[in-house]
């Protein structure tokens, strides 16, 4: 498993990759067959891995992406700070997965520009690490809302 940078330890990365691959197995994707898994590593005294999978719905917009599932689970369990995210899609292709823009924005709600995202190729578990700021430049962040409110006063 190849890692770029030292965002998290090799053992943490291995566990994160295993968790996102396992999460893809739980995907509910009867319409697209597109099984996505994500795993989020919390920034806490004892880091925890929170997995998530995509959950489709017959009314397509009402489904939930794997990345959002992991973040919602983490936040609902009291976590707000994160060390890394791993994402995979259960296909055998040569490309690394890509996150949708909506999921990138949800990650930006809680994480800064240097936050590492590991895009995991399912067939061989190869990781491509990207930083959130490169993956979603000029993200809309909570601080922008605070600036907008103060300007209106």
From TrEMBL:
Name the cofactor(s) required for activity, per the record: Zn(2+)
Q: Name one GO molecular function term.
A: cytidine deaminase activity
Q: Cite the binding residues for substrate.
A: 54-60
Q: Which residues cross the membrane?
A: none
Give a single Pfam family match: dCMP_cyt_deam_1
Residues holding Zn(2+): 65, 100, 103
Reported EC number(s) for this entry are: 3.5.4.5
| Superkingdom of source | Eukaryota
Cross-referenced InterPro entries: CMP_dCMP_dom (IPR002125), Cyt/Deoxycyt_deaminase (IPR050202), Cyt_deam_tetra (IPR006262), Cytidine_deaminase-like (IPR016193)
Family per similarity comment: Belongs to the cytidine and deoxycytidylate deaminase family.
Per its record, how is this protein called by name?
Answer: Cytidine deaminase
Whose protein is this, by species? Macrostomum lignano
């Amino acid at each position: 498993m190849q890692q770029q940078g030292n965002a998290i330890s090799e053992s943490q990365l291995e566990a994160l990759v295993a968790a996102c691959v396992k999460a893809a197995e739980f995907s509910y994707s009867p319409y697209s067959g597109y099984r996505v898994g994500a795993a989020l590593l919390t920034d806490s005294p004892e880091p925890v891995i929170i997995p998530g999978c995509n959950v489709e719905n017959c009314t397509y917009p009402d489904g939930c992406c794997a990345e959002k599932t992991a973040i919602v689970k983490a936040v609902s369990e009291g976590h707000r700070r994160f060390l890394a995210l791993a994402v995979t899609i259960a296909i055998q292709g040569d490309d690394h997965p890509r996150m949708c823009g909506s999921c990138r924005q949800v990650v930006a709600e809680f994480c800064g520009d240097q936050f590492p995202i590991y895009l995991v190729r399912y067939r061989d578990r190869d990781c491509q690490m990207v930083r959130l700021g490169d993956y979603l430049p000029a993200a809309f962040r909570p601080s922008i809302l605070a600036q907008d409110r103060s300007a209106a006063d």
